[in-house]
Amino acid sequence: MYRNGCVLTLLAGGLASIGAGCAPSPRAPLSAVEAAYEDTRFEKDQIDVTRARGAQSSRRGIALIDLVARYRAARERLTAALRDGAFAGLHAEDRRALDLIQRTLEKDLVEEKDDSATGAATAGGASAAVDCGYDPGPLSQGPDGMKTLSERMYACFGRAARHLSFEGQTLDRLTVFGLLPVTGEPERRKRLFLSMQPIWTAVNGDDGPNSPYRRLVRLSAAKMGADGKSVEAGAKDVGVDPAVVEEWLTSVLESWRSITPDREIEPWDFGYLAGQASRLLRAAITKDILRPVNDRYYKDLGADVGALGVQYDLEPREGKNPVAFTTFGARPRLRDGAWIAGEPWAFASYRIGSIDNLNELLHESGHAIHIAAIRARPAFEDWPDSDLFTEAIADIAALEMFEPEWQRKYLGAAVPLPDSLRAKYAGIVMDTAWALFEIRMHHSPESDPNQVWTDITRRYFRIRPHPELSWWAVRGQLIDLPGYMLNYAVGAILVADLRARARELHGAYAEGDTTWYPWVSERLYRFGLERPTRQVIEDFLGRPVAPRALLDDLARARDTSP
Ligand SMILES: [Zn+2]
């Protein structure tokens, strides 16, 4: 989501001035191309967020139909500038900028055919009619077999996840996840957990060799093998040697094991046992405090979301994307030597307040203040080249919410540190278990996934074996992005390392510090695609990423346990 040796000054109006001599104005050979590119992206960003809001006109009052007309005109100018430009003898950086522009034009800045089609509505209608009684064998034949199978699985997964039956009610998957940590009665918790069976079946059928997931993982492993890739190689762009990835994951999981009681538990108990903080803070975290706490905390860090132009759409709505995300409604632009603020948009749907919803909102705001701070030429004004890094830096501030000082200041109530750390890490260690599961399934694609999952969860979570249940099959990423779970697992290691380094270099920030945002922006947020992620990380840390900071953080739960 960023210029060399330039000092940024963030002003109260959300604008930043930039030191003389370092303005990233596009160099002559690309100036026409880059100006047209900036305009095209602006219109596309406005179209995207207007649709995501389910609105007919932008926040600036431009009708969607007019946004599409403006986008087409800007895209025409970009195409013409690319066609008419003379690009021989470009410097390496200009060449990279040009390649990026061309690639983005092909991939993301596609032609807009009609003025109002909303992707979400179309996808919803299609999944209602989807045939989930299919045979994965024939469906996965041919060159596009993996994609076809994965799309069908995802549609069936989504349908099952929206229609779970529990005590005569229809619940969705996230509601079930939200209820498990607060359902005190073990038998009821078990029934709630087992209500997810239709999701497990949609993903893994009867767990036989022809199950949808077992076919998918064989195709995925074969594809990675043919491309010379692996699940672990996903960590290379942040400088982690693929050969150490599995060992890092197991060290995190062993550390979790060492801070949890030595007794066997059922799979439906895991969330409950880690949910003490969630239960204790239930009364303090109401829906009404989510925005005020979020805004106050970021303002205390020097990142006033209002002044930065951040927009929020947090109300549930029929047809709204169920996944929380943040995107550019407009990117920061350099005009006459001064930066004009962007318009980051954060989308989520909150019916209730909860520790998870607050955590998610602080995370989305973390993305928003990151993209508000990018200061790069138009070609590089984008998310960084690593999803893993992007997700990690959204949490640098957000994870302070698990510190008792933070809770006392912003919630007026704090839970004991061990409870808070178990709440913080329960999700992370589950993601780590899924990442390890995907690594092992891709190494041995003929394995029985239920058995692989049973081995992992018995060892690290002391969960009683249930190889008859495909209870691992509840994450969409396992289906549409095999190998993606590693981003969360290594991302947690990376963010712990970056957070520890930020405290070491700049000091604590759990109770606010208005110099924090300019300081972090200068070192981590401002580069966009200008610098490779690995360089940004290693310049900041002064060394490659290591798991020590996360292991030390987790160990604080043990040190203070009674
Ligand atoms: Zn995120």
Verbal overview:
This protein has 562 residues and is mostly helical. Helices cover 54% and strands 5% of the residues. The chain contains 25 helices and 9 strands. It has helices at residues 31-52, 64-84, 92-107, 119-128, 136-139, 145-162, 173-179, 186-194, 197-204, 212-226, 242-259, 270-273, 276-280, 290-300, 355-372, 387-393, 395-398, 404-411, 417-443, 449-461, 477-480, 485-506, 516-525, 533-541, 548-559; strands spanning 8-10, 16-18, 164-166, 169-171, 311-313, 325-328, 333-335, 338-340, 344-347. The strands form 3 sheets. It has a 4-stranded antiparallel β-sheet with strand order 1-2-8-7. Strands 5-9-6 form a 3-stranded mixed β-sheet, sandwiched between helices. Strand 3 (164-166) and strand 4 form a beta hairpin. Helix 19 (417-443) runs antiparallel to helix 20 (449-461). The longest helix is centred in the C-terminal third of the chain and has 27 residues, at 417-443. The radius of gyration is 24 Å and the shape is globular. Mean pLDDT is 90; it is low at 1-27 and 116-127. Residues 363, 367, 391, 394 line the site of zinc ion.
